[in-house]
Design a protein that fits this description.
The protein is α/β, with parallel strands linked by helices and 271 residues long. The protein has eleven helices and eight strands. 38% of the residues lie in helices and 17% in strands. The longest helix is centred in the middle third of the chain and has 18 residues.
Length: 271
């Protein structure tokens, strides 16, 4: 039976997340959230500094110590760059340091895989975050996403170029690309090529429906997920992080040794 047939024939009970375990503060285990839209006024995330600080406050309350802020860089919709993002980030950084001096934030980005991304790779003009790989070696991670409505074109070459430039590609919300829900081998191919796979807390909380939840669940059960991310655009995504602290699936994943979130570490920004 193919993976998709097993997926479709799974008992209905597993199509929805269950929150029946003793509550845990997710951030105490993950330490760093590596995908969020908290820089104010630059994309479809926080609209102003007040909203940004409310989201940071929720992360602190969940036990997180650090956050990588990954504003959209999409040439057609959000034509951001390190030049447009630096000033609002530094303003937020100053406010965070005043309120939570032990909490660190780092500026990176979520790149849409398009020709502009290729140009950024060629120019070595990328916002990245530092981490350690499975062997404890320091690496530079770049978060990227595909379009939601059609499969990417030429993505293998783009990711090869990114790796040849010295970066580790990190795929955002792998479970949210519906065209690959029936082609699980595509995720396996990316993993085999050294791409880190992440899923969103909101998907594991059921916010995007049962099919998306099942794909996220399958990725975790197959040991493919390196990071669970907030992808926070608003406080509702913090509610999802709080909810999945009661998930047996997430708690088992945390005990498996697979998560890479705690190995993300930074002391200063690299931009």
């Amino acid at each position: 039976m193919s993976w998709w047939n097993r997926f479709r024939s799974s008992p209905g009970k597993s199509a929805q997340p269950e929150f029946n375990q003793p509550a845990m503060r997710l951030g105490e285990h993950l330490v760093t959230d590596v995908h969020s839209h908290i820089v104010p006024g630059v994309d479809d995330g926080a609209e102003n500094l007040e909203q940004s600080l409310k989201m940071i406050e929720r992360l602190v309350g969940l036990g997180y110590q650090r956050a990588v802020l990954t504003s959209h860089i999409h040439s057609d919709i959000y034509p951001n760059s390190k030049h447009t993002l630096t000033a609002p980030f530094l303003k937020l950084q100053g406010a965070v340091a005043e309120r939570w001096p032990g909490f660190r934030i780092h500026l990176a980005a979520e790149y849409f895989l398009d020709s502009h991304f290729q140009d950024c790779i060629a120019a070595n003009d990328l916002l990245w975050f530092p981490a350690l790989d499975e062997n404890g070696r320091a690496i530079r991670c770049v978060l990227f996403e595909f379009g939601f409505h059609e499969p990417p074109i030429n993505h293998q070459q783009v990711l090869f170029d990114l790796q040849m430039a010295g970066y580790t590609p990190v795929l955002a919300h792998a479970e949210r690309y519906p065209y690959w829900h029936r082609q699980f081998n595509e995720f396996e191919s990316l993993q085999d090529r050294g791409v880190w796979i992440t899923v969103n807390g909101a998907s594991l909380a059921g916010a995007y429906g049962p099919e998306t939840y099942q794909v996220a669940k399958a990725l975790i059960e197959k040991g493919m997920v390196k990071m669970i991310c907030s992808d926070a655009h608003a406080e509702r995504h913090m509610d999802s992080l709080q909810a999945i602290g009661k998930s047996a699936l997430v708690q088992q994943w945390l005990q498996s040794g697979e998560p890479m979130n705690p190995k993300v570490n930074f002391e200063a920004n690299h931009f």
